[in-house]
Design a protein that fits this description.
10 strands; alpha+beta
Length: 297
């Protein structure tokens, strides 16, 4: 029995209203390359609306019933049962349920260094942030999202299981993506090359100039490319990636703060602490106390 069917039965037994929401938000993203942020199901009330606002992660929504309107940037489209849409991080968007037949959907939010490159191969794009029914078997999408939900939990094992299911779901979108996808433009190629360089060399004291030199373009050109596709600067991405790796070391090792700072590319401990607090709202030592993971033999 599908999870949705079990939810509907539970609703009847409990005498719940027509609308409902089952949402699970992961406490901490354990994996840096790709990790689930949240997952859930929702039957919206008439004209229920989110936004206009900006998300800080990707989020795929698959519509199970009803309809609504999704707007991202200059794109506004009415979608209904069987359609799937995605929320891109750093982009203003909103979505609203229909007045007479409000939509019911399941979703999974995620983030990570691999997310952008994977999404570019799924058929989703900022120009067309949706996939209409018929292009991908709806059962495969529903099963993929259901499996992520069933694996939910805040342990390291659960995080790995959820991410594994997410990879499988994204592979479904990649499999059915049109084979004649347009050739990548230069900006996209530059960003992907820069991200690959950062992921390999973040532990060294590399600078934005070093990254631009490796990509083969000027610093200003690299900045424009990142703004176009990532809605952030290359310096922000580099710092964010280093902080994410530092978080992993703080959770999973007993290394000193100074050693961790040096290991992720910060040669100045004070600058590391300031950058860490700016992103996480706490100092590295406070983060370690709150998020240390204990592994059992």
């Amino acid at each position: 029995m599908l999870l949705l069917e079990r939810i509907q039965i539970q609703k009847v037994l409990c005498g719940m209203a027509d609308s409902y929401k089952y949402s699970y938000k992961v406490g901490e993203d354990f994996l840096s390359s790709l990790s689930v942020y949240n997952v859930g199901y929702q039957k919206c009330e008439p004209e229920y609306q989110w936004g206009p606002g900006i998300r800080d992660h990707y989020c795929i929504h698959h519509i199970l019933s009803g309809s609504g309107v999704y707007t991202m940037g200059n794109v506004s489209v009415r979608l209904s049962a069987g359609d799937t849409f995605i929320l891109f991080p750093g982009t203003e968007l909103q979505y609203q349920a229909d007045k007479d037949e409000p939509w019911e959907y399941c979703w999974a939010g995620f983030m990570g260094s691999d997310a952008a490159s994977i999404i570019r191969n799924t058929g989703f794009s900022r120009d067309v942030p949706y996939i209409l029914k018929g292009r991908i078997p709806a059962d495969e999408i529903r099963r993929g999202l259901e499996q992520i939900y069933l694996n939910k939990g805040n342990t390291y094992e659960s995080s790995v299981a959820m991410t594994g299911s997410l990879y499988s779901l994204l592979a479904v979108f990649m499999h059915y993506a049109e084979r004649s996808m347009p050739e990548k433009d230069a900006h996209m190629v530059y960003v992907e090359k820069a991200m690959s360089y950062i992921e390999t060399n973040y532990s060294y004291p590399v600078t934005v100039e070093d990254i631009a030199y490796y990509v083969g373009i000027s610093r200003s050109h690299l900045f424009r490319s990142f703004q176009s596709y990532m809605r952030r600067s290359p310096k922000d991405y580099l710092t964010s990636y280093r902080i994410k790796q530092a978080c992993r070391l703080l959770r999973e090792t007993d290394l000193s703060i100074s050693t961790i700072a040096y290991s992720v590319g910060f040669e100045n401990n004070l600058y590391f602490s300031k950058a860490f607090r700016k992103q996480k709202g706490v100092s590295p030592s406070e983060y370690r106390k709150e998020h240390s993971v204990t592994f059992e033999d």
